[in-house]
Amino acid sequence: xxxxxxxxxxxxxxxxxxxxxxxxxxxxxxxxxxxxxxxxxxxxxxxxxxxxxxxxxxxxxxxxxxxxxxxxxxxxxxxxxxxxxxxxxxxxxxxxxxxxxxxxxxxxxxxxxxxxxxxxxxxxxxxxxxxxxxxxxxxxxxxxxxxxxxxxxxxxxxxxxxxxxxxxxxxxxxxxxxxxxxxxxxxxxxxxxxxxxxxxxxxxxxxxxxxxxxxxxxxxxxxxxxxxxxxxxxxxxxxxxxxxxxxxxxxxxxxxxxxxxxxxxxxxxxxxxxxxxxxxxxxxxxxxxxxxxxxxxxxxxxxxxxx
Amino acid sequence: xxxxxxxxxxxxxxxxxxxxxxxxxxxxxxxxxxxxxxxxxxxxxxxxxxxxxxxxxxxxxxxxxxxxxxxxxxxxxxxxxxxxxxxxxxxxxxxxxxxxxxxxxxxxxxxxxxxxxxxxxxxxxxxxxxxxxxxxxxxxxxxxxxxxxxxxxxxxxxxxxxxxxxxxxxxxxxxxxxxxxxxxxxxxxxxxxxxxxxxxxxxxxxxxxxxxxxxxxxxxxxxxxxxxxxxxxxxxxxxxxxxxxxxxxxxxxxxxxxxxxxxxxxxxxxxxxxxxxxxxxxxxxxxxxxxxxxxxxxxxxxxxxxxxxxxxxxxxxxxxxxxxxxxxxxxxxxxxxxxxxxxxxxxxxxxxxxxxxxxxxxxxxxxxxxxxxxxxxxxxxxxxxxxxxxxxxxxxxxxxxxxxxxxxxxxxxxxxxxxxxxxxxxxxxxxxxxxxxxxxxxxxxxxxxxxxxxxxxxxxxxxxxxxxxxxxxxxxxxxxxxxxxxxxxxxxxxxxxxxxxxxxxxxxxxxxxxxxxxxxxxxxxxxxxxxxxxxxxxxxxxxxxxxxxxxxxxxxxxxxxxxxxxxxxxxxxxxxxxxxxxxxxxxxxxxxxxxxxxxxxxxxxxxxxxxxxxxxxxxxxxxxxxxxxxxxxxxxxxxxxxxxxxxxxxxxxxxxxxxxxxxxxxxxxxxxxxxxxxxxxxxxxxxxxxxxxxxxxxxxxxxxxxxxxxxxxxxxxxxxxxxxxxxxxxxxxxxxxxxxxxxxxxxxxxxxxxxxxxxxxxxxxxxxxxxxxxxxxxxxxxxxxxxxxxxxxxxxxxxxxxxxxxxxxxxxxxxxxxxxxxxxxxxxxxx
Lengths: 307, 831
Hints:
The complex is a heterodimer. By secondary structure, chain A is of the alpha+beta class. Chain A has helices at 101-108, 117-122, 136-142, 152-166, 180-186, 191-204, 270-273, and strands spanning 5-28, 38-48, 53-58, 64-70, 74-87, 168-169, 188-189, 209-216, 233-241, 245-249, 261-267, 276-282, 289-297. By secondary structure, chain B is an alpha+beta fold.
């Protein structure tokens, strides 16, 4: 049996405003949702200045959501998230055994028949969302990955490989608001762009797919120590298979997420699960500084993760 | 009059509102028809003129985006109402009420358990694929279970006389205000007809709306404050927002006027925050909260959704209700009606084929040449097309698009429109035009109530297939005939108010409106001042007999920044003068300031009286005239003459016609600050110029201070320095004198001090003392000769400069104290 993996995760966000902020509302998706392959051993969220109001609830997609309101003037904000997560091995998926992709599509289409269970839930991930507009261009891009009758997951795997091999990871080529069609043309972007692009391709051909936000374990260069803040939040996709349920694919790394991917939240796209977004009054310039560190914890050092 | 129906088309395949199938005037039209027959063309002409005048006076406009004619365009209203007999209306009303009830239940389901989708009665594609389905609103239960407080439906009448639904308006239906406006105009145009035909009043409808919002607003023991939320003046139906807000007695607010604290909505007023209990919105669903909905929206209220979620505010219609406007939906309503209401749908929708279901798509493709194809989702930016009219290439493209994502499209039959008579002025005759009717429903304690009447929309062309206000059509009043219902008096727009409710000033005046009133005051004074200085410069330029006076005037124009300096493009003096008058690139030109004035006027429209607004419309027309340069100095002088008259009228309205509330106070302060700065700077500049003692220069200085006549009646003599300075500086009875404006401003600042605990830095008080104690007699001291007089004038100019500076500082202080929180919100995002 494969062993599980444990991590301590630091996700720090700092805003230093050039002018005082008199009123601010922030929504945070920084706490992990419950899922079958993860155990959360500890979590903490330190916020400074302390919010006047802090509400914890679940959003409509089942993710923990922290709402914070700041009604006193402040010129900086820091949100420090600490997680201790154990990731369990997921069952192996036999991609060849998945149904033909056309069948997966047909299951989700309207025919006047009732829906139930996970298929009903999957319906919400089939359409346009704020960052994922559907266009024929995306369907065309995906077309050679989905020849007639190909098993769904084989097709998705091919699409993931295609994006991975044809696109270059480039941290400066895009911004959050860069339209997907530009990403497709430039063939450059970051994990978020690749996840959005893959979603657009899958949904444009009628499949249901969701955006997963989380973290990824990275390896420091050989012989060097792990640097605090060297990591970043990560994103990948999950596609709905009528037979296997939701299956994850990471187009940035061309892998099916396993023990090195830590799941935080999922939604239709980044807009539903962005780690921290808000509206402020005042503030002047306000580029955030974000530091993410993912540290593996060996059983021996587990006590270090005291939170 | 001759046969009115001589040229009236009697086409067979169409329902005629006026004529029966045998071409006879229908029973319920007889009374109106006979009146028309009895009238002379001149009499009808008179009524028509009344209607036109009324429309113009009310400034009824309908903004059409990107209209080259400008944002404001007169709204057309036909002289003849459309008539509907009582029994026929009852069927329409029952059908509309049932449909509203049904749609409300559909909203409750899709934002609740979503059983309709699970059971296969409603395609998920149409709901989840629609950008106005707001996931963030899922699970919210509005007060009283009412999602749809206000509903409108577009109807068209088929040849067999039945009414069919062509569209549902569930988000923030427009048109009810126009319907009321039309009624108020047309009932005056035909007072006797209106009485004799027992036309049903519209009053109860608006009262129901007020009652429903007051009842369902979470106000506990407080008197509920309801506001009307508008996207602002660039919205196509902004006029209606202003009009409805006034009729309903609700403050008209924009998103930035509201703020959310501790999940409670507040209105920002000068006196502080006022709790808002209900929001009647005219803002689209996804724009309402930039925190949780469309994050790129600057129109909404951050945190509004959380206030709704916690039951602290009522938003009507419920956020997310726009999803039901999808044209793909009506085809599923008959089955849903059976399921949810257990009864058949009374009002049929025009036949449609939603392409998301493969067999239906096949059928639609077969029938396609005779159908209209449109998108189910507003985010698709797809203009409805008639595939039958496309050439082969275009059609193939369309079919490929359709097959790629069929669920996006719906095909439906063309609505068949009935024809109603319109009065055609040129031929003094009746003509037939296709019409559609928008009918309104409002939730009440016992089900939906229907407005007995509605907005009848008339197509511009006799053979039009689509009726839309944005395509240059007109509108009609809709008269539902029959016995009047007791207690249903004409709409007065007021509820009984006792002495305990008396209010002396608007307690809900948004700070933003006050800030705009302040700038309205400043710009109106600035335009007046610039126009006067331009008139002086142009006048002296034409006359050419007092070069020294012209030189002094030009010098002042440059000093004040009105007259641009000579450069490569502006070689001659004449070019520079015209640039100062109408230069689009010259920020201080009169034209630019007029535009600013009109812009701010537009944003305080709700605070201006109709007559005041009328004066502004006139001003706008003049400004548009000015935009067509003809390079004629004489005509420009004429224009300035007319403009000064209009601006004088505007200041007259400010003094006589406005309630002296806080908004007015700021308008007056704006005028005073602007005038004070201008006069102080002008006289200072004048005194520093070599021509200060020149008689013809002094003449224009009097003209600049609008004091020539006073001077002449007092002194019956040519202008001389000492009396001119007395009149323009120290005469506390002359409204153009520096001391007058200075004291005026100080009084207003004192008032603000008492009312809002506001304190200025006191600089102006000191300067007022200095100016008051200035002795003109020091200019008579010939003992020390000309150099001493020059020194005195220099000192005076310095004092005036200080006053101008302190006035500017006072303006900044006001801004810091009262308008800082008018600042817009910004979004932040991190990964």
